[in-house]
Amino acid sequence: MNLISCEKLEKSMVELQFSIDAETFKAAVNNAFKREGKKYAIPGFRKGKAPRHMIEKMYGSDIFHYDAVNDLFPEAYEAAVKEAKIDVVGRPDPEVVSMSEADGVVLKVKVAVKPEVELGEYAGLTVTKEAKNVNEADVDAEVKRMQDRNGRLLTREGAAENGDTVDIDFEGFVDGKAFEGGKAEHYSLVLGSGSFIPGFEDQVVGHSAGEEFDVNVKFPEEYGAAILALAENIRTVCPESMVLAMSYPPLPEEYGGKSDELNEMLHMYIRSTPDEYVIYRNFSYAAENADGYLAPEYGTEEINAAGISAMLNAVEHDRFYSDMTSDSDGKYEDITASRPEYTVTDGKVAYLTFDDGPSKYTPQILDILRENDIKATFFITGWCIDGKEHILKQVADEGHTIALHSYSHDYDKIYASRRAWLDDFAKVYGKVYAVTGQKPWAFRFPGGSYNSYNRDTADGIIAEMQKRGFAYYDWNAATADASSSATYDSCMDYLQNSIDSDHEVVLMHDSLELTPQYLQDVIDYIKGEGYSFETIDAADEVHF
User: Which CATH class is domain 2-112?
Assistant: First the structure.
């Protein structure tokens, strides 16, 4: 290995260039052939017995080059880091600059390093500690939050009122014709929340379960779909309306000054938390995880001192992330998910996943999947939907699983904080629902769960999303089709080298022209290795 350069980049990133000499690379290529050559079938030769030059003639002269680079990279990279005297803290992002057996290999790697901190003048600085006073109104407010968090929806008789949750079916019409994306069943809507089309909620108020009635609304121009923006009136039929009212768990009888222990714990808790969100987060934590927080029989639940004590155990964790903003105002309280029940399939199973669509190449991929009777999972990027709503709907209509992959894909923006992530996520969540009528329960982080952009915020974002019921998936096999140097041969080689377990979540991209070109061969290879195919609905989560 020979270090060529070490260049400092923005945001505590470094770019290394280093080389691997020709002799070392040539030996690694030969070793790769000995190991991988047995996988190739060449006419006139038994499988695994074809000479190297015949394989290279059929599949390309660099067929074993990437295997060799993968073999040599760890040691060469470690040596480059040591020679450059840098302290890396992230996963390297490598790129092949040049590669040949005659000249060796030149690699370029971007990697996060420990930030350099320059201390300013701190001698003589003073700080004023601000005492936080807690009154009974603060305590009552926290108890009310706890009741809201643990309330249950119960069916009641009578007409719907503002504040009620209604379970409705609806279908939208323009000039007497149903429009695409305007139908839903068992849609849960909080009346008075302002979350639906202006005017819709007001017209549901006053109706009772079993009624069928019309709602007339005008969609705002920014809604997105051209047909809706032009429509003067949308007739919406609601064949069913089930009224549900919130029922809250009662407080213990001793609350209200009779229990000094409970009051003191609440005072201490509120004083100890750095911001309003931490209070919310930890009350939620206790509700979900603390034994004894709620009594088991409905109608007798009590918010008790034991539950509040359990919440204190989570304070330190959230203090670590106290500099991050979050959903403290409840803006995105409806962004929740519930994973359907599933059973992991026995045997060898592959889960084909496609990121960054929909695109003009997605229909080609759907054709190939349909011909092979395979269902896959599509991680949708929100900004790609505009103008391709029909493609996204086709993905859903053909029975593939719809998951989410951010709206903007702007790493600096989405990973700035929990609130920034939710701002972006809510856009793709809403857009996918508007087109497909589905509420996805799974998502994938752009760049993987942990990367150089989110090392400070990943844990907080993951906790936020899991609290909301979402599951996230990385991958354990890939084709590396998103690489700038990707070719048919490199994709197939990368896939073959990455599959080594009984359950493989395979990463590909339906935004690339290359993907439909090699997809059939990917399927054939995976089938040949004894795998069946499923969507992630039947897969345990795969994380880095």
Answer: alpha beta
